[in-house]
Amino acid sequence: MAAMPGARQAPGELRRDLMSAGLSRRLPPRPTRAGRCALDALCAGRPLPRDRKGLSADGIASAVALHGEPALRVLAGRFALRAGLVARVEVAGSGVLRHSARSPYFCGAVSD
What we know:
By secondary structure, this protein is mainly α. It has 2 domains: 1-30, no CATH class; 33-112, no CATH class. It contains 5 helices and no strands. The longest helix has 16 residues, at 5-20. The mean pLDDT is 80.
Protein backbone atom coordinates (compact mmCIF):
# COMPACT_ATOMS: atom_id res chain seq x y z
CA MET A 1 0.00 0.00 0.00
CA ALA A 2 2.88 2.35 0.63
CA ALA A 3 3.84 2.08 -3.05
CA MET A 4 0.31 3.14 -4.10
CA PRO A 5 -0.67 6.32 -2.22
CA GLY A 6 -4.03 6.53 -4.00
CA ALA A 7 -5.07 3.15 -2.61
CA ARG A 8 -4.86 4.53 0.90
CA GLN A 9 -7.14 7.50 0.14
CA ALA A 10 -9.69 5.64 -1.99
CA PRO A 11 -11.76 4.08 0.85
CA GLY A 12 -12.14 7.45 2.58
CA GLU A 13 -13.19 9.15 -0.65
CA LEU A 14 -15.66 6.37 -1.42
CA ARG A 15 -17.15 6.63 2.09
CA ARG A 16 -17.51 10.43 1.74
CA ASP A 17 -19.19 10.07 -1.66
CA LEU A 18 -21.64 7.46 -0.37
CA MET A 19 -22.51 9.58 2.68
CA SER A 20 -23.06 12.72 0.60
CA ALA A 21 -25.37 10.74 -1.71
CA GLY A 22 -27.33 9.48 1.31
CA LEU A 23 -26.44 5.84 0.63
CA SER A 24 -24.39 5.37 3.78
CA ARG A 25 -24.30 6.79 7.26
CA ARG A 26 -22.00 6.80 10.20
CA LEU A 27 -22.10 3.51 12.09
CA PRO A 28 -23.21 3.18 14.79
CA PRO A 29 -25.49 6.20 14.68
CA ARG A 30 -25.29 8.52 17.66
CA PRO A 31 -28.33 8.94 19.91
CA THR A 32 -30.12 12.19 19.20
CA ARG A 33 -32.04 14.42 21.56
CA ALA A 34 -35.28 13.56 19.76
CA GLY A 35 -34.51 9.87 20.08
CA ARG A 36 -33.84 10.16 23.81
CA CYS A 37 -37.06 12.13 24.30
CA ALA A 38 -39.06 9.53 22.35
CA LEU A 39 -37.52 6.73 24.42
CA ASP A 40 -38.29 8.56 27.66
CA ALA A 41 -41.90 9.03 26.53
CA LEU A 42 -42.20 5.33 25.69
CA CYS A 43 -40.77 4.33 29.08
CA ALA A 44 -43.15 6.69 30.88
CA GLY A 45 -46.12 5.36 28.91
CA ARG A 46 -45.25 1.74 29.58
CA PRO A 47 -44.15 1.26 33.19
CA LEU A 48 -42.11 -1.74 34.24
CA PRO A 49 -44.47 -4.74 34.66
CA ARG A 50 -44.57 -6.35 38.10
CA ASP A 51 -44.77 -9.89 36.69
CA ARG A 52 -45.15 -11.71 33.40
CA LYS A 53 -48.80 -12.68 33.86
CA GLY A 54 -50.87 -11.59 30.88
CA LEU A 55 -47.85 -10.55 28.77
CA SER A 56 -47.22 -12.06 25.38
CA ALA A 57 -43.71 -12.87 24.17
CA ASP A 58 -43.75 -9.60 22.21
CA GLY A 59 -44.79 -7.71 25.35
CA ILE A 60 -41.93 -9.23 27.32
CA ALA A 61 -39.46 -8.40 24.55
CA SER A 62 -40.63 -4.78 24.32
CA ALA A 63 -40.49 -4.37 28.11
CA VAL A 64 -36.93 -5.69 28.17
CA ALA A 65 -35.99 -3.43 25.25
CA LEU A 66 -37.42 -0.37 27.01
CA HIS A 67 -36.40 -1.00 30.61
CA GLY A 68 -33.30 -3.18 30.23
CA GLU A 69 -31.91 -5.21 33.11
CA PRO A 70 -34.67 -4.44 35.65
CA ALA A 71 -37.29 -5.86 33.25
CA LEU A 72 -35.07 -8.82 32.47
CA ARG A 73 -34.80 -9.64 36.19
CA VAL A 74 -38.57 -9.40 36.70
CA LEU A 75 -39.81 -11.08 33.52
CA ALA A 76 -37.14 -13.68 32.77
CA GLY A 77 -35.10 -13.82 35.96
CA ARG A 78 -34.12 -17.47 36.03
CA PHE A 79 -33.25 -17.52 32.33
CA ALA A 80 -31.23 -14.29 32.58
CA LEU A 81 -29.33 -15.54 35.62
CA ARG A 82 -28.51 -18.93 34.12
CA ALA A 83 -27.55 -17.36 30.78
CA GLY A 84 -25.22 -14.93 32.52
CA LEU A 85 -27.14 -11.87 31.32
CA VAL A 86 -27.44 -10.44 34.83
CA ALA A 87 -25.09 -10.64 37.77
CA ARG A 88 -25.93 -12.72 40.81
CA VAL A 89 -27.03 -10.54 43.70
CA GLU A 90 -25.09 -10.65 46.96
CA VAL A 91 -27.55 -11.27 49.76
CA ALA A 92 -25.29 -10.37 52.66
CA GLY A 93 -21.69 -10.10 53.67
CA SER A 94 -19.65 -13.25 54.29
CA GLY A 95 -19.87 -12.99 58.09
CA VAL A 96 -23.65 -12.61 58.32
CA LEU A 97 -24.50 -16.23 57.54
CA ARG A 98 -21.77 -17.64 59.72
CA HIS A 99 -24.03 -20.11 61.56
CA SER A 100 -25.96 -21.39 58.55
CA ALA A 101 -26.02 -25.12 57.78
CA ARG A 102 -23.81 -24.65 54.71
CA SER A 103 -21.12 -22.77 56.61
CA PRO A 104 -17.91 -24.64 57.52
CA TYR A 105 -18.30 -23.11 61.00
CA PHE A 106 -21.70 -24.70 61.62
CA CYS A 107 -21.68 -27.18 64.51
CA GLY A 108 -25.38 -27.93 64.81
CA ALA A 109 -26.50 -25.29 67.27
CA VAL A 110 -26.46 -21.52 67.23
CA SER A 111 -25.01 -19.96 70.36
CA ASP A 112 -25.23 -16.21 70.60
